[in-house]
Automatic annotation (TrEMBL):
Enzyme class: isomerase
Pfam families the record matches: Aminotran_3 (PF00202)
InterPro entries: Aminotrans_3 (IPR005814), PyrdxlP-dep_Trfase (IPR015424), PyrdxlP-dep_Trfase_major (IPR015421), PyrdxlP-dep_Trfase_small (IPR015422)
Keyword annotations: Isomerase, Pyridoxal phosphate
Signal peptide: none
Gene3D superfamilies linked: Aspartate Aminotransferase, domain 1, Type I PLP-dependent aspartate aminotransferase-like (Major domain)
Organism taxonomic ancestry: Bacteria, Pseudomonadati, Pseudomonadota, Betaproteobacteria, Burkholderiales
Cofactor(s) needed by this chain: pyridoxal 5'-phosphate
Keyword Cytoplasm attributed: no
Family in the record: Belongs to the class-III pyridoxal-phosphate-dependent aminotransferase family.
Gene Ontology molecular function: any one: transaminase activity
Stated name of the protein: Glutamate-1-semialdehyde 2,1-aminomutase
EC number annotated for this UniProt entry: 5.4.3.8
SUPFAM superfamilies noted in UniProt: PLP-dependent transferases (SSF53383)
Species in which this protein is naturally found: Hydrogenophaga pseudoflava
């Protein structure tokens, strides 16, 4: 109550805008997740730059949320801002190809170990499209996902295991198809279950993050992916790696660096330096199968993509992001700083005597309410505590620091400094003192 009052007193302009938007925006915000911070009303931003956002009441926050990775390389990185500014008077949407797109295709092929790429407007779209291509290419209907996964609002993935049985997620609004007919779900790290599920047949692809990041972090056990790949291949199923978040682990993503030979790859959010766009890549063999499927399909608008796919603004931004922003030097800074942040978190959590673990994967860091990291989606789900998370998020916001509103996830970007990290640790120290004294 005290923290909510403190927030209300400090944010009169946000409060006024929230009241104004309430009547004409569904949920009163552009996206309902913007209400998920534990604040009494939505925080409204004025501008964002580098590792900071400034709200409409003039508070500048150190940003460890970074648009839930959309701004993984900082807000408005200079080369992307320049490219967007140059493109601003040269057209946005023409339905014609650009040089930028050709360069982006080359760049992606060099970095991520897959030769053929195509564009989408968001990671959700990219996942939806690649799943359709794989169904078309294999002639199989089903997909397999891991329990607790999230790949955007692509409906196919909203199936959970409850007491070991698959159920369609309750919160799946407006979905009329029975997903249990076409989506198979097993626990992450469970090779026997994966094998059995694929043996039942008709599974076009496994859609997975190499490290689960959306139910809190769940790491692959040593050897999991090496064995999983063999099983997937043995059943003639294809593997799609969704690296929308794990692109934070290095310039070529996680899978390529860890010897996971995916048939397809999805990258969203940060790949345009924060400008809306996404991509998916394919092996040469898969691309040939996809092209054949398209050729052999009945004539008509059966293509996969939207009018704005490959728009000129997104292509210019992505070219700048790939060639000038997502550099080895930027990654070097992010990964070293993420390690220092993780160490600082462990120290402050230990000082408060809390049995929480800290997991770091690339530039993403999380503390979880359990002594050792969970091994699968069910274990991760059991330790979630939304009320405690809100207390922490709100307490941090009141102290000038913002972390992701989902779980206790943080991300560092090339502009994040050791001073920012110290500010986060100091703020968390105060918040934990308050919580543990209650
Ligand atoms: N894939 C993963 C792994 C994600 O975490 C998300 C969003 O959080 C998406 C895809 C969807 O991204 P978007 O909401 O930008 O479509």
């Amino acid at each position: 109550t005290q923290e909510r009052a403190r927030f209300t007193n400090a944010h009169p302009r946000s409060a006024a805008l929230a009241a104004r938007a309430r009547d004409h925006l569904l949920f009163g915000v552009p996206l309902h997740w913007m209400n998920d911070w534990g604040t009494p009303f939505a925080l409204h931003v004025d501008h964002a730059s580098g590792a900071q956002v400034t709200d409409v009441d003039g508070h500048t926050l150190v940003d460890f949320c970074l648009g839930d990775t959309g701004a993984m390389f900082g807000h408005s990185p200079a080369p992307v801002a320049d490219a967007v500014t140059r493109q601003a008077t040269r057209g946005y949407t023409t339905m014609l190809a650009t040089e930028d797109a050709a360069v982006v295709g080359e760049q992606l092929a060099q970095r991520f170990g897959l030769p053929v790429w195509q564009f989408a407007m968001s990671a959700t779209d990219a996942n939806r499209y690649i799943v359709r291509w794989l169904r078309a290419a294999t002639g199989r209907k089903k997909i397999l996902v891991f329990n607790g996964c999230y790949h955007g609002t692509i409906e196919d993935v909203f199936v959970d295991l409850v007491d070991g049985r698959p159920v369609q997620r309750d919160s799946l609004l407006g979905q009329v198809h029975n997903l249990l007919d076409t989506t198979v779900v097993v626990e992450f790290n469970d090779l026997a279950a994966l094998d059995a599920a694929l043996a039942a047949g008709d599974v076009a692809c496994v859609l997975a993050e190499p490290v689960m990041t959306n139910i809190g972090m769940v790491l692959p056990e040593p050897g999991f992916w090496a064995e999983a790949q063999k099983i997937i291949r043995r059943h003639g199923t294809l593997l799609v790696m969704d690296e929308t978040h794990t692109i934070s682990t290095g310039p070529g993503g996680y899978a390529h660096a860890h010897g996971i030979a995916a048939d397809a790859l999805v990258l969203g959010k940060p790949v345009g330096g924060g400008v809306p766009c996404a991509v998916y890549g394919m092996s040469a063999e898969l691309a040939a199968r996809a092209e054949r499927a398209k050729r052999e399909a009945p004539p008509g608008h059966s293509g996969i993509g939207t009018t704005l796919t490959g728009n000129m603004l997104a292509m210019a931004a992505m070219r700048a992001a790939l060639t000038e922003v997502m550099t080895p030097a930027a990654y070097g800074h992010m990964l070293a700083l993420a390690q220092r942040l993780a160490a600082g978190l462990r120290e402050v959590i230990a000082r408060h005597g809390l049995p929480w673990c800290v997991t770091q994967v690339g530039a993403r860091i999380e503390f979880q309410f359990c002594p050792t990291p969970p091994g699968n989606g069910s274990e991760a789900d059991r330790i979630l505590d939304g009320e405690l998370e809100h207390l922490i998020h709100l307490g941090l916001l009141n102290r000038g620091v913002m972390i992701t509103p989902f779980h206790n996830m943080m991300l560092v970007c090339p502009q994040t400094t050791d001073e920012h990290v110290a500010q986060l640790i100091g703020a968390l120290d105060e918040v934990l003192t308050q919580i543990t004294q209650k």
